[in-house]
Amino acid sequence: MPTRIKAGTSTSGGVFEPDTAGTLELQTGSTPTTALAIDASQNVGIGTSSPTSYGGFTTLAINNSSNGGLLDFVTNGIVQGQIFSTTSEMRFTKIGANFTSFYTNGSERVRINSTGGVSVGTTTALATLTVNGNITPVQAPSSNWGIDFAPSTSAGSFVTIANDATYDLAAGSGLVYVYDNAGNGAAQYFAFFGSTSVTNLTGGFFAATINTAGKVNFYYESGTARYRFQNKTGSTVNLFISTIRLRASA
Amino acid sequence: MTVTFKFEKEESTASPIYRTYAVDETGNVLMTWQIVCDDESKLESIAAEAYAQAIANTVILNQQGVA
Fold first, then answer.
1. Which residue in A87, A138, A198, B22 has the most C-beta neighbors within 10 A?
2. Is A248 helix (H, G, I), strand (E, B) or coil?
């Protein structure tokens, strides 16, 4: 069958029909190079004469010998979003101070806002990660499970507080667990609407009263409306601090 | 192994907080943590002391919580 260009029909605007069952190529440039290729299985290639092919799928392959493929989503000439991949990275980008959302079954499930806040089950991120629903660790209770706060290395994540320096926790009420990495003691505090109390204490290293000499003190600092650790031990301390926040303070 | 320290100042509501990185000769980050300190000139020595203390007192647990 010769190559034919056919006029439109009731179902198509027009047809370009190649003369073989091979790939249809559109070439551009002073040295003609394949810009667009459509193989006999309707797989489409951009920047390649050999679109990738997979059984049961129709593919769009975007090829570049340097970086790779990139899709631009454009509104009235202005790029609004991008998807691209290089040899080392797959990136989804929303241009500007906007958000990216993920839907299933017709409803938004996950959103990433313009400052990196991730919200699950809600469109409003109240923190770096906000979940409207339950979070369920699925490890067996007998193993080492739970929520790990900013782990770094095998030593975990700790805060070093210089002598006489202070470290603030966000406002709120809840439980605070702290221990000193040098083995000087551990404490469990209850922080509740502007007051703190020690509910469990190992050793005499911690106190709940400001300016107690020789101790790490945990108290409410009204000027900043924060709960504050104050190092009055006379030397630097390494503290592991975990919090379970029950509710925001008034 | 030679360990050096890098510091990045973070937002603070009280004493300045520095994100601290302990880095080996090849640039691998061995540990990262926060240092709270009012005197920037003491950061290096505080970091060295804190790192040594953390390494000395670290007990690595397996998944069953056993050392």
1. B22
2. coil
- Collapsing DSSP states into helix, strand and coil, what is residue A139? coil
d(CA A7, CA A84): 37
Residue A58 touches chain B, beta carbons under 8 Å = no
Q: What is the ipTM of this complex?
A: 0.82
Q: Answer whether A216's CB lies under 8 Å from A207's CB.
A: yes
Residue A117's nearest CA partner among A134, A105, A100, A104 is A100
**AA identity, residue A213:** A
E strand or H helix that includes residue A129? strand A129-131
- How far is A154 from A232, CA to CA, in rounded Å? 28
Tokens read off for A61: 């392959």
User: What is the distance in angstroms between the Cα of A180 and the nearest Cα belonging to chain B?
Assistant: 10
Selecting from B38, B60, B62 the residue whose C-beta is nearest the C-beta of A162 gives B38
Can you tell me whether residue B63 is helix, strand or coil? coil
Verdict on whether the full-model pTM lies above 0.80: no
Task: Tell me if chain B has a CB within 8 Å of the CB of A166.
Answer: yes
| pLDDT at position A235 over 90 | yes
Question: With contacts defined as CB-CB under 8 Å, which chain A residues touch B58?
Answer: 154-156, 181
Window from A26-30, A120-124, A134-138, A183-187 with minimum mean pLDDT: A134-138
DSSP-assigned states of every residue in A21-52: SS-EEEEETTTTEEEEEE-TT--EEES-SS--
Nearest CA in chain B to A169: B13
